[in-house]
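Q: What would this chain look like folded?
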Amino acid sequence: MCEHAIKDSCTGEVEPVGSRRRRLWELPTNCHCPLIGVCLPLAMLRRLVNKLLVRPLEGDDYDVHVWAVHECASRNRMAELLQRTLDERFATVLRQFRGLRDAAALHAAWRQAVERGDVAGPFWATLTHPRCDLAMIENVVRDMHMIQHQAGASTRVDLGRFAELQKQNAGISRELEQTRDKAARTADARTRELARLTAEGCQLRAELAQRDSTIESLRRELDTLQAALPDLRDRERLARRVEELEAREQALSDKMAQLRQRFARERQEAATPPPLPPVQPAPAAVSAPALDLADKTVLCVGGRSGNVPNYRDLLEKEGARFMHHDGGLEQASELLDTSLAAADLVICQTGCISHQAYWRVKDFCKRNGKRCVFVDNPSTSSFSVCLRKVAMPVADGVT
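A: My prediction, written as C-alpha cells:
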C-alpha cells in the first residue's frame, strides 16, 4: 500500500506522499466534525447510523452527529459506510478534482467553490485529494469554519425574514381568499344574468319566428286573393270613377230640370199679353240692398291654395272676417256645415271643390236663406269682381 504525506496534529511528523486518495479515517480528527456536518444531511446521517445498529440510536440530532464523528477516527463499518456514501454522493465533483496535478491547482479549485457558495462536494474532494497537504487541510478547515459561522448568521437573518414573509403571506392569503370569494360571487351573478339573457333571447327568437311565420302566411293569403281577383285595383278605381260620374250626372240633371222650369216659365210669360198700365204710377221695383262687408263673416269654399292669402287680404280690406274650407279635398266635408252656419256670406269656387261639397253648399244656403255667390274662375281677379258684385244691389229672389 502506498503511503500519504500527512502531518499528524499531535506529533508534527510528515509521512511520505503517494497518489491514492485519503480515506475518511486517515484525515485529521479536526476535519471529521465539519465534514460530517456539511456533507451529510441529518436525516441521511440518521438513516446510515440506524442501518448499522441493532437498535436505533436514542437521542437527538446532536447525539447522532457526535457518535458518527467519533466513529470516523478509526476504520470500522460505520467509517467505511460513510466513505462509500460520500464518494457516491459527490462522484461528479471527485471526477472533476481528479485531474488536478498540483497543490496550486487544487487550492484554486477550492477558492472557486467558496466563491460560488457550493462547498460540500469540493470540501470532501479537497480533503481527500492526494495533493492536499497538512497546511492546505488547515486552511480549508478554517475556511469552512468561517463559512459555517456566516451561514449561521445568514440563517438567522433568513429566519427573521422568513417569519416576516410568513406574516405577509398570511395577509396576502386572506386577501386572496376574499378576492376569490368575491370573484366567485361575481361569477355566479354573471352566470345567472347570462342564463336570464339567454332565456330572454330564446323567447325573443321564438316570437320573431312566430311573427315571420304570420307575415309569410298573410303574404301567401294576399297573393292568393290577388291571383283570384287580378283586376281588383282596376275595379276599385272604376267604381270610384262611376260614383263621380253619377254625382256629376245628378248635378247636371238637377240643373237641366231647373233650366226647363225656367224656360217653361219664360215661354208662358211671353205668351201672356202684358197687362194694361194702372192709372196710378206703379211703385218702383224693390231690390235687395247692397251687402256691407264690414264686421261680416265671409266663407270661401274651394279655390286654389296659393290664392287663399290673396282672398284673405281682399276681404280684410273691406273689414270682413275671412273663413276658408277647401271643399272636401283635404278637409272633412262634415266640417263644412259648421263653417256655413257661422258665415254671413258664402263664396263658392265651383271649379275647385268636389261635387258633394258643391251640393252641400247649395242645399244649405237654399234652406237657410243664406246669400251664396258662385265663382267659376279661382283667380284673385275673379274673386275681386265677385266682391264688387256683392257690394251692388240685386233684385229680390236673386241668390
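The domain at 291-395 is CATH 3.40.50.720 (Rossmann fold).
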